[in-house]
Amino acid sequence: MNELNPVMLAKGVFINNAWRPAASGRVIDVYAPAEGRVFAQIAAGTAADVDAAVKAARHAAEEGAWSRLTATERGRLLSRLAVAIADHAEELAKLEARDTGKPMKQARADIAAASRYFEFYGGAADKLHGETIPFLAGYFVPTERVPHGVTAHIIPWNYPAQMFGRTIGPALAVGNATVIKPAEDACLTPLRLAELAAEVGFPDGAINIVPGLGEEAGAALSAHPDIDFIAFTGSPEVGILIQTAAAKNHIGCTLELGGKSPHVVFADADLDAAIPVIANTVVQNAGQTCSAGSRLLVERKVYEEVVSRLNARFASLRAGSPEMDLDLGPVINAKQKERVESFFAKASADDVGVVAEGLVAEGVPAGGFYVPPRVYGPVPRSHILATQEVFGPVLAVLPFDDEADAIALANGTEFGLMAGIWSTNASRAIRVARKVKAGQVYVNAYGAGGGIELPFGGMKKSGHGREKGFEALYEFSTLKTLIIKHD
Ligand code: ADP
Fold this sequence. Notes:
Blueprint (H helix, E strand, L loop, with lengths): L7 E2 L3 E3 L2 E3 L6 E6 L4 E7 L3 H16 L2 H4 L2 H17 L1 H12 L3 H21 L14 E2 L2 E5 L2 E5 L5 H14 L3 E5 L6 H13 L6 E3 L4 H10 L5 E5 L2 H13 L3 E5 L4 E5 L5 H13 L9 E7 L3 H13 L2 E2 L14 H16 L4 E4 L1 E2 L13 E3 L7 H4 L6 E7 L2 H8 L7 E5 L3 H10 L4 E4 L19 E2 L6 H5 L1 E5 L2 E2 L2
Parallel strand pairs: 1-5, 8-9, 8-11, 9-10, 11-12, 13-14, 13-20, 14-19, 15-17, 18-19, 20-21
Antiparallel strand pairs: 2-3, 4-5, 6-24, 7-23, 12-22, 16-18
Helix pairs in contact: 1-8, 3-5, 3-7, 4-5, 5-6, 10-11
The chain binds adenosine-5'-diphosphate.
Family: Belongs to the aldehyde dehydrogenase family.
Keywords: Oxidoreductase
InterPro entries: Ald_DH/histidinol_DH (IPR016161), Ald_DH_C (IPR016163), Ald_DH_CS_CYS (IPR016160), Ald_DH_CS_GLU (IPR029510), Ald_DH_N (IPR016162), Aldehyde_DH_dom (IPR015590)
């Protein structure tokens, strides 16, 4: 993890609380995005490892020690893991920052959030109740929430530690046994967290983790005939493959597939409060956040003022390495850098102007995948900058004329993950918030990815199903109705 030890070898695949080499014997190089060079290798898990992991999970779910724990005991284990994560916060934050390139302060916040997921679901585990249903005379009809059994979790590289907590926290709380396929670009913290979970006492098979390529380990996991549910966060293209695989096995899935989330700024908005939040929601994690606020819709009357404030704000923003701990880090890899730069090139070719810009800091390591944060405006409504997810620190500003226009524009993409409404007119803010099609709508605030307590997920092509909050306990369980005749 330092210059003297440039390449660390992750320990393999984690099955039944033990490390083993991948059956393929192959490894995958992992790049440090801040330096643009290989710093670690992970095991290339394939179908054989996935099969072993699913078998371990099946045993844990149905016969092993995990299956015999009460809800309270499961909750205690989750709470213990939350404490262990907090106790290892600095080690984990450094690992996360090296693997993803994000600034240390962001990595620290992410590890705190990962701990908080286990704290929240630890407390929630024994509070998921059934109901009793009035029925015919002589019958007693209770319902019970039961786990699916074996849940598969395919997660992305942008927030590896948080995603681990977000997806398995609720699944474990209700008693599923889990198999996780983390992203090949960044997965070292999930591997370490699985190990910590074993140390705090999670029984064999409750948490199994198979790193590997998406088209190998990911495809094998999503198509495995003995999984009962899939939770996926990633691209819309792979989302289609996941839902198709789930359909072939007749199982359910949740898909969280990103967005092009709007901020809607009315002329009466408190711009002092709004502008720093708006800038941050597209710069956080170098814009590589599904719920980034990447479209800024502004009432025409205040367009010039908003743009000038953004200009001042972005002028001070700097991209740098984790250790420099600036406003944003690099993007994840060379491909992602090329993607962001292709949007820059398209904007330039189409004469869409840069109205605000930050810089890549001087002295960043050569070879790192840095891009400057940029704001473009006015962006034509049909331009790809206004319609497609960039997954980089790029904000598109579009003016609107009135409330109806604002709503149409806010709803004018294929996505529907989040939105922020900025207005001091409470009636209007509520009216607009209720008409915008998105899973979460903030009023005079915006929490890109924030709020473990808050149900989160998409409408339209942002996906379906809800994670986070108490709602995730329903998603990761199913309802059983007992119909008991007693007369
Ligand atoms: P991104 O473009 O952000 O990398 P992906 O959708 O490609 O998003 O990746 C999200 C997760 O899905 C990663 O863990 C990746 O390995 C996995 N993945 C990629 N391709 C497949 C596939 N064909 N089947 C299952 N999982 C996949």
